[in-house]
Amino acid sequence: MRRVHEWFLHRGLPLVLTRRVRARKLVQRSAPMVSAVGALTAGTMLLADLTGDDPDYGYAIRLGAIALVLVAAPFVLEILHRLGT
Known about the structure:
- By secondary structure, this protein is mostly helical.
- The chain has one domain (about 20-85).
- About 80% of the residues lie in helices and about 0% in strands.
- α3 runs antiparallel to α4 (about 55-85).
- The radius of gyration is 19 Å and the shape is elongated.
């Protein structure tokens, strides 16, 4: 196990994140994925506008739901961890 931990540390990836590290800068770590989903949604709407088709609001809602889950998941996992679940 020690060798595995050293392998991760050598590559800049801790094997286990402490609570303080997990909670710190949470938004900054999730921001790239949330912005990618937002850019994909905006691109879809722009493409629909340029082609004259109706925008696919169902698709946009699904992407929004995915973004919401990605943002909320770390908070929910932290709460579950604190409750001992």
